[in-house]
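Write out the bound-state structure for threonylcarbamoyladenylate.
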Amino acid sequence: MWRVGERNGRGKPLKHMDYIRTEVIEVNAESPEPTVIERAAMLLRHGEIVVFPTETVYGLGADAFQPAAVERIFAAKGRPFSDPLIVHIADEHELELLTTTIPTEAKRLAREFWPGPLTLILPRGQRVPYRVTAGLETVAIRMPRHPVAQALISALGSPIAAPSANRFMHISPTTAHHVLTDLSGRVPFILNAGPCEIGVESTVLDLCSDEPRILRPGGISLEALRTILPDVQPPMQRNIEVEDEETLVKKAPGQLLTHYAPTVPLLLFDGSIEAMYTAMLTEIARRCEQKEHVGVLIAEEDIPTFEDSGALIYSPGSVDDLIKVAANLYAGLRTLEDANVQVILCRNFGEQGLGLAIRDRLLKAAGGKIRN
Ligand code: TXA
Ligand code: MG
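---
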């Protein structure tokens, strides 16, 4: 059993909290067993935190109306209180509990994309604790479509505040095993419903500014959003060097350039296919000569080019199937991490559709730097 000061599965010392026993319970993804859901809902009712699957990634939830329970999420993740949480609902009526105004745009987007991977930033309703919004007068709301998430929110009868169920700054988990790697001994209960379908987090769309703007690209593409709201703006280009994480989280919640990072350095390559291949192969050769253990994350069609390069290969799918690439992306980064590579070289997968979200996560993992 781990104790305070000892090390957990990721090799980081446990700080500020005692080791607790983590129970993993299998639950049917399509028709979750009511007894299992009720156990999880009971824990939430008593102010505990519970890990549950969504169609994007696994979430670490607490009853959104219990500030003390919400605080446990931050402690378990090691996340600063300055980074606000998404509130998950199962029914559109719950919107009225959470926000003061429901603009027409929000109604139209909700009709088209909820339940699903879209998070809307709306004015904070009075009942929403500041612990959830990090003191902001806005609140992030999403209606997940995963049957287990829906069943849990309905059983609790209250919205669930939940970030991704990873340690702060690490890659989001798309399997219960990923959650255990990061949070074993720090959370009491994990509902395991198998791998998440989408694999990247929800799109966060700000509806509280002059024009609707994507704050974080995700499971719903910019193109899809524009079919409903043609003036949706793409995410702002950021070039913030990470010097003081706490300050940056305040300035731009969730927009740190080294968010979602694997525990090993990642180099992101861009440019024409030929230039990308040449630059990557040169880098691999240089590092292999120095006896470095190199991992590459590439498309299926790149495999013949890298087969004899000496690097460990992971391919999440073809550039022509970004749905598959997104679904396997975080598992790929974790697989390479677990294989103890010292660096991950990664290709660019384009910016169309889900490509924007994939690029955003890879760019953040690469600390905002691109190699041409
Ligand atoms: O798919 C998802 O969105 C997953 C699942 C569990 O629902 N959740 C997730 O939560 O990715 P988290 O906490 O890892 O990311 C939420 C993002 C953060 O970047 C946070 O800064 C931003 O949403 N956010 C939350 N409330 C906000 C607000 N009021 N204004 C601006 N950004 C906000
Ligand atoms: Mg997260």
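---
The chain has a mean pLDDT of 91.
The chain is about 35% helix and 15% strand.
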